[in-house]
Amino acid sequence: MAETKEMKAGMTEQKKQAVIEQLWLTYYNDTLFAKGMITEEQRNKMRVMIKSRTAAKTR
Fold it and tell me: What is the rounded average pLDDT for all residues in the chain?
């Protein structure tokens, strides 16, 4: 029973880290776009890549 609780806590921590990572990557991506360093197309491509990367980590 104790192992199950530890595993659930670990999974929760992994999901938490994945969400934090997604937030930071999205922030940097949007900042680069706002400063004109990347195009809207590049921003959108990166947004899809960020979402797919973090979605894979939460599974």
Answer: 86
